[in-house]
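User: Run a structure prediction on this.
Assistant: Running it now.
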Amino acid sequence: MTHTNRAELSWLRRDLLRIAGASSLALAVAPHWVFAKDKSKITRPIPSSGELLAIMGMGTSRTFDVELDAQTLRELTEVLQAFFDGGGQLIDSSPMYGAAETVIGKTLAKTTNKKGLFTATKVWTDGKQAGIGQMKQSARRMGVKTIDLMQIHNLRDWRTHLPTLRQWKAEKKIRYIGITTSHGRQHQELKKVLESEPFDFVQLSYNIIDREAEKELLPLAQEKGIATLINRPFQRGDLFRRVKGKPLPKWAAEFDCESWGQFFLKFVAAHPAATCLIPATSKRKHMVDNMGAGYGRLPDANMRKKMIAHIESL
């Protein structure tokens, strides 16, 4: 998409907002212009079921942990609407993220085009009854009857929670069971758990400069048929600081990449074990850019090596 086209689209959207006089109407009529018609949406199957998921999901850590006034609610609703308009499905949250689950629930109530919505959150406490209470609270906060994916956050008291999650899955209170880590921590413990217990999903950190998960966890997920959620694809913004002021290489166009954000996301998405990425943002323009990475071509193995070398040279 050319800069001229982007400018025209931006002008058209502003004009619609002015004419509509309400963000809800504008969001309903604005959606798909930003996604090229000739680029196919990238999806990946959940190995345990075969259900397809859009490869681009969204996280809510920090970005949705806010006090809601009218303006913030409107802005975050626009962010979430851009996610759905870009074909997004999976929204990941946690009780650890403060108000995020509640904010998701309030913004979900104001969005449209939610085809294939897939809610994911976590249990993050000690003890069976505390876990049950927390999971019920999460469903109420997010405004859903059934949470699609319930994950044990950072392996916390996982031996206690796993039987409950299995029971809830059998009772159709949840659809999938997962376990998580972040910051590159607990990899060896997580590896042992995945080797000994059946899980539908595992969530972990992985990006172009933090590739530790490539050594054991991602291959293990492939071997065991476990779907992956990838957090920190931007290394909490460190990757953008590394490339600040640097031009995007022209060869990035070979895999339909139009920005540094898409460069980093497509690198992760191209890993054969990647099921869904969950970058977090509170800016609509960043969400639109993120969702663009979920369309078109992905880099092959040789191109991924070229991408790594380029970033390491900066």
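The mean pLDDT is 90.
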